[in-house]
């Protein structure tokens, strides 16, 4: 397996020259990056700025096949056998602290002999360049919920990852009472939907559309429980909408009730 690189450097990076306090607008910044090494995890970085200073830099990841974040997977030893482990996260967090400590109104020239996670700096740059995220509708957190089984014995499991009040990623699966996953069945050719996409691919498209629209009610349903809103999706979407509404009801800010 390809080792996830840590690059030792001197004269680590240059963002911009040191500028007066407050040049970076206070707020919450987000950037989504690439796959982490040879895994199916996609990395993301969040940056919080207050009074022109970075308060927190957090690196994490999501995976359409896993109900939780990368950090959660590490804590549950779900990534054993890969280069991502607790020591990897510790190095990421140590470097995050270095970024905070060397931030004065804007990221300035930072020199260190510490090793840093490959791509981390460019992702922080990307987050700040993207601008502050408009505050969303929900409370930050990682929310997972399982539904009751349907008449065929399948229940939905949905995870939604919320940062800055916005849904940024998630994972939807349906599992029967015997433990068989539709995602696995589809990949093994045992749950053939026909059409251009397998069930798991269509489930991912549903999650991606929810991330784009932020509200499940914006994914309009037809009378047959399907939708024309998501191109390429022919599966029944009603279970996804129902469980998304339940998850988000628990993540709705009290002031919005």
Describe the model.
With 257 residues, this protein is an alpha+beta fold. It has six helices and eight strands. It has helices at 70-75, 86-101, 120-130, 182-187, 199-213, 238-251, and strands spanning 6-8, 27-35, 42-50, 53-62, 115-117, 141-146, 154-163, 166-176. The strands form three sheets. Strands 2-3-4 form a three-stranded antiparallel sheet. It has a three-stranded antiparallel sheet with strand order 6-7-8, with helices on one face. A two-stranded antiparallel sheet has the order 1-5. The termini are far apart.
Low-confidence stretches: 1-22, 108-113
Could you give the distance between the termini?
48 Å
Q: Can you tell me the overall shape?
A: globular
In total, how many beta strands? 8
Please summarize the sheet with the most strands: 3 strands, antiparallel
Helix content: 25-40%
Order of neighbouring strands in the sheet with most strands = 2-3-4
Mean pLDDT: 85
Q: Work out the strand percent.
A: 15-25%
Radius of gyration (CA) equals 20 Å
Task: Describe the structure using short key phrases.
alpha+beta, 257 residues, disordered N terminus, 6 helices, 3-stranded antiparallel β-sheet, 8 strands, globular, 24% strand
Give a short summary of the structure.
The chain is α+β, with helices and mostly antiparallel strands and 257 residues long. Helix content is 26%, strand content 24%. The termini are far apart.
What are the SSEs and their pairings?
Blueprint: E1 6-8, E2 27-35, E3 42-50, E4 53-62, H1 70-75, H2 86-101, E5 115-117, H3 120-130, E6 141-146, E7 154-163, E8 166-176, H4 182-187, H5 199-213, H6 238-251
